[in-house]
Prior knowledge:
199 residues; mainly alpha; Ferritin; elongated
Amino acid sequence: MKTNMRLMVLLxxxxxxxxxxxxxxxxxxPVQAANEPTATDNNNKVLMQSDKDFLMDAEKSHMxxxxxxxxxxTKTRNDDVKDYADxxxxxHTGALDDTVDLMKKYNxxxxxxxxxxxxxxxxxxxxxxxxxxxxQEFINMMMMDHQKAIQKFQAQQSASQNDDxxxxxxxxxxxxxxxxxxxxxxxxxMNGAKKTTAR
Length: 199
């Protein structure tokens, strides 16, 4: 009888020990799961090479538009073109700041040290032009540049796995489209003025 009693106590203690251990383990799992990085977290810590190339290209593009816009403000005598250049400079300066911030966050090499060369390359086609010839070439350049930029930003917004890159592209696309639309309007206005003068 005593042997049976001891056996029952031992079995009961063993069962309680197993139950307690099981409870501790079941409570540990949710904590571990909560602390484990998700796929989204990992995606936002590392950039694919395509994202890095996109940021470097965007930085150069913003520096180019900024430089060309500043040149236009000093050379044009057309108020519409000057207003357009003002908008370009403001928007691309802000966009350049955002781009550089992202590049710093992900340790992407900035091209700021080559800024003078980028400016020279950007303005070389326009420096020797004046008057309506300058305005026409400037607007044509802005149309082509912004068409290319919109395509690149749309493609990266769709392809990137990084939330920061997708948000960056999404936020800038409306401004790029606005720049293209305004350049198209100005080109049509200039062409209309040419036809009127020709008559």
